[in-house]
Design brief:
The structure is a single chain. The protein has 74 residues and is an alpha+beta fold. 39% of the residues lie in helices and 18% in strands. Strands 1-2-3 form a three-stranded antiparallel β-sheet, with helices on one face.
Length: 74
Protein backbone atom coordinates (compact mmCIF):
# COMPACT_ATOMS: atom_id res chain seq x y z
CA UNK A 1 0.00 0.00 0.00
CA UNK A 2 1.09 3.51 -0.72
CA UNK A 3 0.30 6.23 1.80
CA UNK A 4 0.78 9.97 1.58
CA UNK A 5 3.63 11.63 3.43
CA UNK A 6 3.57 15.41 3.75
CA UNK A 7 6.82 17.07 4.74
CA UNK A 8 7.03 20.80 5.32
CA UNK A 9 9.44 23.22 6.95
CA UNK A 10 8.40 24.65 10.32
CA UNK A 11 9.97 27.97 11.26
CA UNK A 12 8.53 27.55 14.74
CA UNK A 13 10.24 24.19 15.28
CA UNK A 14 13.24 24.94 13.03
CA UNK A 15 12.96 21.54 11.34
CA UNK A 16 10.97 19.60 8.77
CA UNK A 17 7.73 18.21 10.21
CA UNK A 18 5.91 15.17 8.86
CA UNK A 19 2.19 14.52 8.52
CA UNK A 20 0.52 11.25 7.49
CA UNK A 21 -2.86 12.46 6.18
CA UNK A 22 -4.58 9.07 5.97
CA UNK A 23 -3.86 8.32 9.64
CA UNK A 24 -6.36 10.79 11.06
CA UNK A 25 -6.52 9.12 14.49
CA UNK A 26 -2.80 9.66 15.11
CA UNK A 27 -1.44 12.86 16.63
CA UNK A 28 -0.01 15.05 13.86
CA UNK A 29 2.73 15.84 13.00
CA UNK A 30 3.96 12.31 13.55
CA UNK A 31 7.70 12.96 13.38
CA UNK A 32 10.31 15.43 12.18
CA UNK A 33 13.88 15.77 10.92
CA UNK A 34 16.63 18.35 10.69
CA UNK A 35 16.92 17.61 6.97
CA UNK A 36 14.29 16.63 4.41
CA UNK A 37 15.97 13.24 3.99
CA UNK A 38 15.96 12.59 7.75
CA UNK A 39 12.28 13.58 7.95
CA UNK A 40 11.44 11.18 5.12
CA UNK A 41 13.38 8.33 6.75
CA UNK A 42 11.61 8.97 10.06
CA UNK A 43 8.24 9.12 8.28
CA UNK A 44 8.83 5.74 6.67
CA UNK A 45 9.73 4.22 10.04
CA UNK A 46 6.60 5.64 11.71
CA UNK A 47 4.46 4.44 8.82
CA UNK A 48 5.87 0.93 9.13
CA UNK A 49 5.16 0.93 12.88
CA UNK A 50 1.58 2.17 12.39
CA UNK A 51 0.88 -0.52 9.78
CA UNK A 52 2.49 -3.26 11.87
CA UNK A 53 0.55 -2.20 14.96
CA UNK A 54 -2.78 -2.13 13.09
CA UNK A 55 -2.16 -5.57 11.60
CA UNK A 56 -1.11 -7.04 14.96
CA UNK A 57 -4.29 -5.65 16.56
CA UNK A 58 -6.54 -6.80 13.71
CA UNK A 59 -7.49 -3.18 13.00
CA UNK A 60 -8.46 -1.86 9.60
CA UNK A 61 -5.85 0.20 7.82
CA UNK A 62 -6.94 3.49 6.31
CA UNK A 63 -7.44 3.49 2.57
CA UNK A 64 -4.74 5.37 0.67
CA UNK A 65 -6.05 8.59 -0.82
CA UNK A 66 -6.42 8.99 -4.59
CA UNK A 67 -3.03 10.70 -4.91
CA UNK A 68 -1.38 7.72 -3.17
CA UNK A 69 -3.18 5.33 -5.51
CA UNK A 70 -1.94 7.27 -8.54
CA UNK A 71 1.62 7.05 -7.26
CA UNK A 72 1.25 3.30 -6.90
CA UNK A 73 0.34 3.04 -10.58
CA UNK A 74 3.29 5.15 -11.69
Amino acid sequence: MKYSITIQWSDEDNCFVVFLPEFEDVMQPVTHGDTYEEALKNAQEVLELLIESALNNNEDLPKPNIFGQLLQLA
